[in-house]
Design a protein that fits this description.
eight-stranded antiparallel beta barrel; 4 helices; alpha+beta; 175 residues
Length: 175
């Protein structure tokens, strides 16, 4: 599958959530993409960065594929080198994790330092989960990471530490 066709299929899947998983998995075409502007496209050039909603996941080896059933949002701030990962349940509340990331050769490694929980009308509860020492995240440690295959102004595709693949669509910041 050519790059343009892969991008078209993924964008259609993000908009309709009706494209079968087998059609979405044209990853070989994505590996040939020029990655020189990936971080800028993913996280913008100034804070607070850009926000992406997880749409679709595939298990390691492009196995079991599924649309993500709840609202999961990731924000990447390239200027501050920060990531926020959250699950949002509308008026019921949210759960977010936030921390620094590092970027090297299409790989974004991260660690979470802060957890925020909000339930119903109550103010969010903030918990520090920072380790004893501050360090730069690395894919050589046991830190989570994403290896990015494709990013444009609408969609992003990456493989995680576990070998699963995720597809995001650009969205507005959740408040």
């Amino acid at each position: 599958m050519e790059v343009e066709e892969s991008v078209r299929v993924v964008k259609n899947a993000a908009k309709t959530r009706k494209v079968p998983g087998e059609e979405i998995m044209g990853m070989a075409a994505f590996s040939a993409i020029d990655s020189s502007r990936f971080l800028e496209t993913l996280g913008g050039t100034k804070s607070p960065g850009r926000t992406w909603m997880l749409i679709f996941t595939a298990e390691k080896g492009l196995g079991k594929c599924r649309y993500f059933p709840i609202t999961a949002i990731q924000s990447f701030d390239a200027a501050a080198k920060r990531i926020e990962n959250g699950v949002y349940l509308g008026p019921l509340g949210f759960l977010t994790f936030e921390g620094p990331f590092s970027w090297k050769n299409k790989t974004l490694a991260f660690v979470f330092e802060r957890l925020r929980i909000k339930l119903g009308p109550f103010d969010p509860f903030d918990i520090s989960i920072k380790g004893k020492e501050e360090r730069e995240p690395s894919n050589k440690d046991k830190d989570p990471f994403f290896i990015w295959f494709y990013i444009d102004e609408e969609i992003a595709v990456a493989r995680g530490r576990s070998g699963g693949t995720a597809f995001w669509v650009r969205c507005r910041r959740v408040s």
